[in-house]
Specification:
The chain has 311 residues and is of the alpha+beta class. It folds into 2 domains: 12-161 and 197-310, Roll (Urate Oxidase); 162-196. The protein contains 8 helices and 12 strands. The chain has helices spanning 62-74, 83-97, 162-178, 183-192, 220-228, 239-250, 256-270, 303-310, and strands spanning 19-28, 32-36, 39-43, 46-53, 80-81, 103-117, 124-139, 145-160, 199-210, 231-232, 279-286, 295-302. A hairpin with a 2-residue loop joins strand 2 and strand 3.
C-alpha cells in the first residue's frame, strides 16, 4: 500500500499575507564554462533562486528550486554559455514548476581569472575577478513571461587618499622652508619625489541591465574598473614592481567618489553605441587602512542620465 504524504506547503497559512521573495541561496553547481573574450573560461557558479508566494499558500516547494537549477545546468554540460542566459533560463523554469508564483529571480556569481603583466619586471600574474549575473521573470495576466537580465563584473584595486597626500606635501614644504630651499627648487623636488599617503584595497563593481536584443562582453568592464582606481592589485610582485606600484598609486590618488565618476565616464566612452535606457549600477567600497570603518560610493542610474550630466 502506497503511503500518501501530506503536502504542508499547499495549506492555507495562519496569517494570510503574501511574500515578495522566498527561495534558496548559495547553491553551488559543478564547474562550467562561460564565454569571456570569445573564449571558454572555467568558473564554479553559485546561485540564489527566489519566487514570490501568494497569501493563500503556506510555503514554497523549495526542493524544486534546486532541481530547476540542476536541470537547467545539465543542459549546458560541456558547452560554453553566458551566465546571464543561464539565469534567464532558470527564472523561466521556476515559473513553470511553481504554478502559483507570478515572479522569479535568480542571482549567480563565479570567480574567473585574467592575465596581466607586473608594472616593472613585466612578469605574468593571474588576477581574479567576480562575474555577477541576475535575471527576473514575471508572469503577465495574458500568460506570457516578461524577462530582464543583468551582467556585471567586480574586482579589487587600490585607492590612495588625495587628502592625506596633500597634507603630507604641505608638511614637506614647511620642512624644506626651514632649510632655506627656494620656492622654485622646492617645486621641482616635490614634482620628482613620491609623496606619502595611505593606500587601501578597494572593491569596484559595474552591473548592467541588458535588453534581450543586445549582448555585452563582460571583460570590457574589467579595464573600466581597473583604470578608475589609483592602481591595480597584483598577486605577484617583485621588489621593483612593489616600488613602481606604490609610486604609481600615490601619484594617482583617488577617493571612492572619484572612482565612481571615472567608472561612469569610461563606460560612456566604451559603450557609445548603447541606448540611453540601459540601466546601470556602479559601486566602490574602500577597505580603509587607517580606520576601523570602510567607505562606499554608489550610483544607480541609466546611460542617458550620465550622458546628460557629462554634456
Amino acid at each position: 500500500m502506497k503511503l500518501e504524504l501530506p503536502d504542508m506547503h499547499k495549506k492555507i497559512p495562519e496569517i494570510g499575507l503574501s511574500i515578495n521573495k522566498v527561495g534558496v541561496v548559495g547553491v553551488k553547481m559543478p564547474i562550467g564554462y562561460v564565454t569571456l573574450k570569445k573564449k571558454p573560461v572555467i568558473i564554479v557558479p553559485v546561485f540564489d533562486a527566489f519566487i514570490d508566494l501568494p497569501s493563500t499558500q503556506k510555503g514554497i516547494h523549495s526542493s524544486r528550486n534546486y532541481e530547476v537549477i540542476n536541470d537547467v545546468l545539465s543542459k549546458y554540460v560541456g558547452k560554453t554559455y553566458k551566465l546571464e542566459d543561464v539565469c534567464v533560463a532558470i527564472t523561466r523554469e521556476l515559473l513553470e514548476k511553481h504554478e502559483y508564483a507570478t515572479r522569479s529571480e535568480v542571482r549567480a556569481k563565479g570567480e574567473a581569472l585574467f592575465k596581466q603583466r607586473t608594472p616593472k619586471t613585466k612578469i605574468l600574474s593571474y588576477e581574479s575577478f567576480r562575474i555577477i549575473a541576475k535575471a527576473t521573470s514575471e508572469r503577465l495576466t495574458n500568460g506570457s513571461i516578461n524577462t530582464k537580465r543583468m551582467i556585471g563584473i567586480g574586482l579589487t584595486g587600490i585607492t590612495a587618499c588625495p587628502c592625506a597626500k596633500e597634507v603630507v606635501k604641505r608638511i614637506s614644504e614647511a620642512e624644506m622652508e626651514k632649510l632655506d630651499i627656494t620656492k622654485d627648487k622646492m617645486r621641482k623636488i616635490l614634482e620628482k619625489i613620491p609623496i606619502a599617503t595611505h593606500m587601501q584595497r578597494a572593491y569596484g563593481s559595474i552591473v548592467v541591465e541588458i535588453p534581450e536584443n543586445m549582448e555585452l562582453e563582460a571583460t570590457r568592464l574589467v579595464q573600466i574598473i581597473t583604470n578608475s582606481m589609483s592602481s591595480s592589485t597584483f598577486e605577484l610582485l617583485k621588489r621593483p614592481d612593489e616600488a613602481k606600484l606604490v609610486i604609481q598609486a600615490t601619484s594617482n590618488p583617488r577617493f571612492v567618489e572619484d572612482c565612481i565618476r571615472y567608472m561612469m565616464s569610461y563606460f560612456v566612452k566604451e559603450f557609445s553605441d548603447f541606448p540611453d535606457d540601459i540601466r546601470l549600477i556602479f559601486k566602490v567600497r574602500s577597505m580603509e587602512s587607517i580606520h576601523q570603518h570602510d567607505l562606499i560610493a554608489e550610483r544607480v542610474t541609466n546611460l542617458g542620465e550620465i550622458r546628460k550630466e557629462l554634456s
